[in-house]
Amino acid sequence: MARRKLVYEGKAKILYEGPEPGTLVQYFKDDATAFNAEKKDVIDGKGVLNNRLSEFFMTGLQRIGVPTHFIKRLNMREQLIRQVEIVPLEVIVRNFAAGTMAQRLGLEEGTALPRPIVEFSYKDDSLGDPLVPEEYIIAFGWATQQDLDDIVALALRVNDFMAGVMHGVGIKLVDFKIEVGRVWENDFMRLIVADEISPDSCRLWDIETDRKLDKDVFRRDLGDLNDAYTEVARRLGVLPKSGQPITKPTLIN
Ligand code: C5P
C-alpha cells in the first residue's frame, strides 16, 4: 500500500491526505503541550479519548444544524474530515473568568461573566497566539467584518450546545476555543467549525466540586490527565460506565 501523504503536523494532531479530493484524515496524537509547547509530555491514550470526544461534540453540533468539518471516525485515533482553509484565529468563548482572562483582569477564577464573551487570538505560535481586536483582524485581512459576525454567531451556537450538554452531565463549561475554516459550495463560501473540540480546548469543571476535568490538569500538575478526560467521556456515555482502560482497542469501536 502506498504511504499516505502528510499534509501538516501540529502539536496534538497530524493531517494526512484523505481518500477523496477535499478530504483529510485527522490523526490524534498522545502528545500534550502547554504554554506554547514549553511543557510537554506523552499521555498514553489521550489521542484516543480526544478522537472520540471530538466526534461526539461535532456530530451533536451537526445534528442541531451547526456545520463542522467532521465526516466520520475511521478508527481509534483517526477521523475523516473536510479540508478547509483555516481562518488564522483562535476563537475563544468564555462563560466564567479563568486562565488568561482572569490573569489579565485580576478576576478570581470562576467569576461568572455578565454574558458569554467571544475573543480572538491570532494563530501564530512564534508570537504566542496574541489576543487581537477585531480591527486588527479586518485591517490585516485575516477575516472580513461579515466573516467575524458569522464566526461570533457560530461560536455562540457552539457555546449554547456545549454548555447544555455539559450541564446535563454535571459539568460547567467555563470556556473553550474553536477554530473555523472556509469551504466553498458552488460559488458560496461557508464558515464551519474545524480542528477539534475536546478537553484539550475547553475548561470543564465539575459543577459540585469545581474539580478540573480538562487540560489545566496537565498545565497545573493537578493529577492524571487521562483520569480527567475519561471521567468526561464516561459521563457523556462515550465510554462504557464500567470504565476499563481506554487504551484497550476493544473498547473503542
Ligand atoms: O489560556 P486561555 O485562558 O486564554 O484559554 C481559554 C480557552 O481556550 C481554554 O479553554 C483553553 O484550553 C483554550 N485554548 C486552546 N488553545 C490555545 C489557547 C487556549 O485550546 N492555544
TrEMBL record:
InterPro entries for the chain: SAICAR_synt/ADE2_N (IPR028923), SAICAR_synt_PurC (IPR033934), SAICAR_synth (IPR001636), SAICAR_synthetase (IPR050089), SAICAR_synthetase_CS (IPR018236)
EC number: 6.3.2.6
Involved pathway(s): Purine metabolism; IMP biosynthesis via de novo pathway; 5-amino-1-(5-phospho-D-ribosyl)imidazole-4-carboxamide from 5-amino-1-(5-phospho-D-ribosyl)imidazole-4-carboxylate: step 1/2
Keywords, in A-Z order: ATP-binding, Ligase, Nucleotide-binding, Purine biosynthesis
All copies of domain SAICAR synthetase/ADE2 N-terminal, residue ranges: 7-235
Organism superkingdom: Bacteria
BP terms from Gene Ontology: 'de novo' IMP biosynthetic process; cobalamin biosynthetic process
Any one GO molecular-function label of the UniProt entry: ATP binding
Any Pfam family: SAICAR_synt
A GO cellular-component term linked to this record: cytosol
Catalytic activity from the UniProt record: 5-amino-1-(5-phospho-D-ribosyl)imidazole-4-carboxylate + L-aspartate + ATP = (2S)-2-[5-amino-1-(5-phospho-beta-D-ribosyl)imidazole-4-carboxamido]succinate + ADP + phosphate + 2 H(+)
Alphabetical list of SUPFAM superfamilies matching this protein: SAICAR synthase-like
Family membership noted in the UniProt record: Belongs to the SAICAR synthetase family.
Designated name of the protein: Phosphoribosylaminoimidazole-succinocarboxamide synthase
